Amino acid sequence: MDEFVVLLIIAVVIIGAFMVIGTPLANWAEGNWTYASGNYKSLATFDIGRVGLSDSAASRTLKFGSFTLGQTQADTLKEMATLGVSQGYFGGDPKEFDIAIDQNILSNLKDVKIAFDMGDTNLYGNLVFKWNDKVVFDKQANLNHYDIIIEPGDVKEANTLEISAGMPGVYFWAATYYGLKDFKVLGEYGPEKFFAFKIYPNEVEGWSKGVLSFYTTSGQAGEIRVKLNGQQIYSATSPEHLVTQEFDYSAIGSTLRIGDNVLSFKSDGVFEVDDLEFEIQLSGSRTRERDVNVTKADMDLINRGKGRIEFNVDSIYKEGILTIKVNSNQLSIQAVRSGKNTVDFAANDVFEGENTVAFSGTGSWDISGVKVGIAY
Fold first, then answer.
1. Span of 68-77, 152-161, 197-206, 330-339 with lowest mean pLDDT
2. By the 8 A CB rule, do 374 and 297 touch?
3. Each residue of 48-57: pLDDT tens digit?
4. Is the model more confident about 361 or about 149?
5. Any residues with CB less than 8 A from the CB of 159 and at least 6 apart, and which?
6. Could you tell me where the beta strands, DSSP code E, fall in 200-327?
7. Which of 10, 47, 73, 77 has the fewest CB atoms within 10 Å, i.e. is most exposed?
8. In which band, very low, low, confident or very high, does the pLDDT at 29 lie, cut at 50, 70 and 90?
9. CA dist., res. 186 & res. 172, Å (int)
10. Beta-carbon neighbour count of residue 92 at 10 Å?
11. Which residues sit opposite 365 in a β-bridge?
12. Dihedral pair phi/psi, residue 16, rounded to 5°
């Protein structure tokens, strides 16, 4: 009995002490509790599962066609099956085109060739071509094939081509007319061959591998060198009939650009290259989102402290960068590890009402036990 009385007195003393200093576990019904460092209010809890890159794959294949490497190249800058111009005393129908030339081609330019066949004309006046306001052709054009050569010194990255017909002379009641067929503007350069293409942000983020493939004729001797944005990515002497080269992100990631990219081919011999393709293979990207409601009272608490997101990483399938966004604001998070992880957000990352928390990344993780709340 004496021992019971002693234990009872000790229990009363402990309870009294908690009543004085307060218990660390209080207001559970309101979602509030006390840490050693202060208070925390829970706004939402949820599991999100698999985040980041999935096993599903997508791809995009760039088809560049066939060409002869080691001789003058010709890229089509403008092409029309038919083109008509006319001019009378009371009006006319001239044509004007903007002709852009890639800097890589411009640096290796031999000339620009305007090629066409004359399909129909009444020869009342001249046919006139102007390149950057300079007259490069001004005469009657009979039914024939024509090549107009523009010298490199007259060519810029951005050019203007004007095509018109001259006045009909004594045929004042009529209009001069010229109908051109198979009209082309060609940039002739070489011997290096260039191919411009675009890479999009999601392709850089989800890059699985790139596959370069082409055919050459067996028995051709010499070395082929391929560069991506000026960096060599392939070279071979007398390559096999079918060439296939794969590139993972670690091999060319630092060379890729979001936006404009350039593949270039060069050789010390003449090679027939057929069916050039560059396939971009992607891993599927999985983003998980949840809505979290923030009240006016919550905003007051965040202004006194900070927002906090806790989550558990149950499995890491692939290392990478985990991205967590609150609305459109990306949070700063260190390397993700198995087990519990924490990241904080500021008052200006959220607003009163429904907010979106999104998980994504370049790796792959299973995530559970997400807690969004306020530490204050």
1. 197-206
2. no
3. 888 887 765 6
4. 149
5. 98, 99, 100, 101, 112, 131, 132
6. 207-216, 223-228, 231-237, 242-247, 259-267, 271-286, 288-294, 306-318, 322-326
7. 10
8. very low
9. 36
10. 16
11. 51, 316
12. -65, -40
Q: Which amino acid does the sequence have at 36? A: A
Q: How far apart are CA 322 and CA 319, in angstroms?
A: 9
Tokens of 216: 């050459």
Domains and CATH numbers, the chain: 22-54+285-375 (2.60.120.260), 57-68+195-280 (2.60.120.260), 72-189 (2.60.120.260)
Q: Kindly report the CA angle at 365 between 364 and 371, in degrees rounded to 5?
A: 140
Token pair 């307060």 is at which residue? 22
Predicted local distance difference test score (pLDDT) of residue 2: 58
pLDDT value, residue 293: 96
CA distance 86 to 127: 9
Position 37 pLDDT exceeds 60: no
Query: pTM of the entire structure?
Result: 0.58
Burial of 173 (0-12, 13-18, 19+ CB in 10 A): exposed
Give kind and range of the element (H or E) at residue 137.
strand 134-139
pLDDT, the chain, mean: 88
Report the distance separating Cα 326 and Cα 248, nearest Å: 31
Mean pLDDT within 16-31? 40
Is residue 9 within a helix (H) or strand (E), and if so which, with residue range? helix 2-21
